[in-house]
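User: Some background: our group keeps a shared notebook of sequences we're curious about, and every so often someone picks one and asks for a predicted structure to add to the entry. Today it's my turn. The entry only has the sequence so far, pasted here. Could you supply the structure so I can complete it?
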Amino acid sequence: STGRNTTVRDRDRRAIARTKPPCGICEQEIDYSLPHLDPMSFVVDHVVPIAKGGLDELANKQAAIEDLKLHRTKSDKLAEEQGPRSFVTTRVW
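Assistant: Of course. Here's the predicted structure to add to the notebook entry:
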């Protein structure tokens, strides 16, 4: 197992945040101004998990919402292993 370089991690995080993409898992908009402890804050997610042979490089990273339920659903699965997406919102109608 190779360790992850924090300098590279921080550089890739800034590169992703500059373009402000939606969540790569659920496609919801991300509020990039939220503090890192907020459950809806921005995190970097590996598209192909490291555990499945994915590389720790920018081309294999996407923005994601920190929401623990969402991350537990994805875990170390590939997109095709996740099944249909469900969309959750905090909006009250």
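Suggested note for the entry: The radius of gyration is 13 Å. The chain has a mean pLDDT of 80.
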